[in-house]
């Protein structure tokens, strides 16, 4: 599949669309999912145009995985879930809906209500508040 320059994450990377940032460095950007499946649902993307993990150059792998791990650790610290789910979908058949590579980080605990994937847009103020807590908990 060809990379579509107009996908929403490409626009976020070009500052043509807004996002609520959680973390950024020269190779990686992390921000709140606007339709979170659980509080704190964060997306981590490389600053490289690829639809999928398979075509990611080596130099992005380590920064992307490191940021994902560090944010997962921050989410554990903030919400104290019993589990953290890290998801990465490659291709429409795998359930991918935005075609710029991304990792989802979603807290999981028994009894916590999960929302459907890509369904309900969360209030910006709530997302800002969750992002603030996660940002403060990140240890690089
Ligand atoms: P996928 O199905 O591709 O693995 O996940 C795409 C994710 O992007 C979904 O969880 C969806 O809620 C999220 N998403 C879709 N549009 C936007 C947007 O405009 N901004 C942000 N921050 N997230 C989005």
- Give the name of the CATH architecture: 2-Layer Sandwich
Alpha-carbon distance between the two ends? 34 Å
- Our estimate of the beta-strand percent is 15-25%
Strand arrangement, largest sheet?
1-2-3-5-4
Number of domains: 1
What's the pLDDT, averaged over the residues? 97
What's the SSE pattern?
HEEEHEEH
Please give the count of helices. Answer: 3
CATH topology: HIT family, subunit A
Give the % helix: 25-40%
**Which secondary-structure class do the elements indicate?**
alpha+beta
Identify the bound ligands. Answer: guanosine-5'-monophosphate
- From the spread of the alpha carbons, the general shape counts as globular
CATH superfamily: HIT-like
CA-based gyration radius:
14 Å
Number of extended strands: 5
Low-confidence stretches: none
Main sheet record: 5 strands, antiparallel
Query: Which class in CATH terms?
Result: Alpha Beta
Summarize the structure.
The protein is an alpha+beta fold and 140 residues long.
Commentary on this structure:
With 140 residues, the protein is an alpha+beta fold. It has a single domain (8-137), classed as HIT-like (HIT family, subunit A, 2-Layer Sandwich). The protein contains three helices and five strands. The protein has helices at residues 8-13, 58-79, 124-137; strands at residues 21-24, 28-32, 42-46, 83-87, 103-108. It has a five-stranded antiparallel beta sheet. A hairpin with a 3-residue loop joins strand 1 (21-24) and strand 2. Helix 2 (58-79) packs across helix 3 (124-137). Bound molecules: guanosine-5'-monophosphate (5GP). Guanosine-5'-monophosphate binds at residues 8, 19, 31-35, 89, 95-98, 117-118.
